[in-house]
Amino acid sequence: MNKTISINLGGFFFHIDEDAYQKLSRYFDAVKRSLSADGRDEIMKDIESRIAELFQERLKNDKQVVGLTEIEEVITIMGQPEDYKIDDEKSTYQSSSSSTNFYYPSKRLYRDKENGMLGGVMAGLGHYLGIDTLWLRIIMVILFFGFGTGLFVYIVLWILVPEAVTTTQKLEMKGEPITISNIEKKVKEGFDDITSKFSNIDHEKITNSAKSGATKIGSSIEEVITTIFKVFAKIIGAFIVFFSGIGLLGIIITSIIMIFSSTMPDNYILNNIQTPIGLETPLWAQGMLLLLGFGIPLFFLLILGLKLMVNNLRSIGNYVKYSLLAVWLIAVGIIISLGINEASQLAFEGKSVQKEVITIAPTDTLKIKFKNNDFYSKSNYRHHDFKITQDEGDNEIIYSNNVSIEIKYTDEATPYMLIEKLANGKSTSQAKKRAEKIKYNYKIEGNTIVLDNYLLTAVENKFRGQEVEIYLYLPKGTIFQTDESYSNYDRSDYDFFDESEYDTKNPVYRVDSDKIKCLNCLAEENSESTDSSSTIYYDDNGDLIKKEVKINETDSTKTKEIITIKTK
User: Are residues 335 and 352 located together in one domain of the fold?
Assistant: First the structure.
């Protein structure tokens, strides 16, 4: 039984057979002898890292021993040192062409900071996709200004995609075979670039600058600027951590409530949890989409903030990054598809119109009241867009306060009212049918209009923007009165009727052709600065009984007008 040796190769520990170890040592010695002095250490380091990766791919567990078989496979992939003792590019091409043992790995996505403008994301994508980096940058700018997603996508990729640091990673980024010759060539290219840059330096100018002491001043300024940027980065990181942390915590709590909604009482769920996605999507599924679609980006923003605050923060690992990215893309795709489906459900509007003539005497005061149903809500104010509840027969129904009223002027002699029921749907016909199924009640008792402050519809009709709009057409001279809750539902044109400008209990209004005026209010427009006086009488219910107007003429004579209006 051969002796086993433990070695550290490329930062990884391996158990290797003694014969295999001797062969690997001879291979490293041969490679080192074949390399020139320039960059030899860096090349050997990259070769060791690459061989360590190949060993890891072939070993099933940490206890498995590297044997001669694995050594020979790795040498076959990397190539023999004597194959690459070259003097020029021509012999390189011939030697490479004669070898049939190249290992061509698939491209891997890395950030290319050497050729990048900011984080090297677009340059790395260009290598991976085989597309000119310029086109990718143009697309990113369009996404940023056109849709607002460019910056977010760039930040996510910057966090997820690792930078190509080692020579092996740079070869993988471009899809080039990872062999000794290519590693050596890549390292020499780096040395050539440095040499070229160094040769273009004006040495005499630098020498004179050094003698004058400008170099020290420049270094000091550079240190100050660097320190300022570091502090600024940490402050930004703190803000990112704070806001992303709060947002992530809120999303996690909300998602948990939605995911475990099946354990909550039905009434609580139906009355208190409302989401923008259709009711046909299970609440637990919506919670999962919320967590994955919005929680993952906030998690990466949190990591970004921590990286800005903490130096040498340990990475969460490429496996976790790519896995979360894949899950996030799937979740976003599902959210978009559900959003498109939900939007299609609201594409068309349909309505059902009912006309009701109001028969009252010209001298009567028309009263307008809104009434609530204590079974659904104890309040007479508008506060529910919609909720799912139960009626008296324990049947599930949709309850909504989407009710509004608008007072308009009419040339007709008799007041009338239009009740419009509106809803949305995939088509006009579907929307109209849904509108016709809205249940809305009102009644006219003498000179009083009593309107429900809510509408009802069956759950199977789904909530698709159902609402009721009431248009009350009043002729000139009509006198009317509203209750306290009227303002919650009023949608009248402010130029014609602005109920909110009057701060009077039980206000009484009169319709003119151009504007509705209050008869018992102290608004500026109703108390003109003329030499006049008036007296208005109304009972405890706000019914107008008598109005007396006295006007002083310029010749000091007085006229008196008495108007008596019957309200009962």
Answer: no
Domain end, chosen from 79, 98, 117, is at 98
Instruction: Specify whether the CB–CB gap between 15 and 67 falls below 8 A.
Output: no
Tell me how far apart the 2 most distant CA atoms of the chain are, in Å: 136
* Domain final residue pick, 98, 120, 147: 98
Q: How far is CA 516 from the centre of its chain?
A: 45
Reduced to 3 states, what is the DSSP secondary structure of residue 517? strand
Tell me which of 16 and 500 has the higher pLDDT.
16
CB neighbour list of residue 5: distance below 8 Å, 6 or more residues apart: 15, 16, 17, 18, 21
| pLDDT tens digits, 404-463 | 999 999 999 899 999 999 999 888 999 999 999 999 999 999 899 999 999 999 888 888
Close Cβ partners of 149 (under 8 Å, ≥ 6 residues apart): 143
- Confidence (pTM): 0.46
- Whether 459 is covered by a domain: the verdict is yes
In angstroms, the Cα distances linking 460 to 34, 280, 437 are 80, 10, 11
Task: Give the H or E element holding residue 230.
Answer: helix 214-259
For the segment 4-15, what is each residue's pLDDT rounded down to a tens digit?
888 888 778 888
Q: What would the DSSP string read from start to end of 64-123?
A: PEE-HHHHHHHHHHH--GGGG--SSHHHHHHHHHH------PPP---B-SSS-SSSSHHH
* Rg over CA atoms, the chain: 41
DSSP β-ladder status, 455-458 and 396-400: antiparallel
Give the H/E segment covering residue 405: strand 403-409
- The end-to-end CA distance of the chain, in Å, is 118
Residue 436 Cα distances to 224, 405, 442, 457, angstroms: 73, 19, 16, 10
Of 113, 154, 159, nearest in space to 136 by CA: 154
Place of tokens 């060791």: 48
What is the tally of structural domains in the chain?
3
Residues 388 and 420 in one domain: yes
In the chain, the percentage of residues whose pLDDT exceeds 70 is 69
| pLDDT higher than 50, residue 326 | yes
Q: Which domain holds residue 383?
A: 348-524
Query: What distance in Å separates the CA atoms of residue 97 and residue 444, rounded to the nearest whole number?
Result: 98
Q: 313 and 356 share a domain? A: no
Q: Compute the distance between CA of residue 367 and CA of residue 332 in angstroms, rounded to an integer.
A: 53
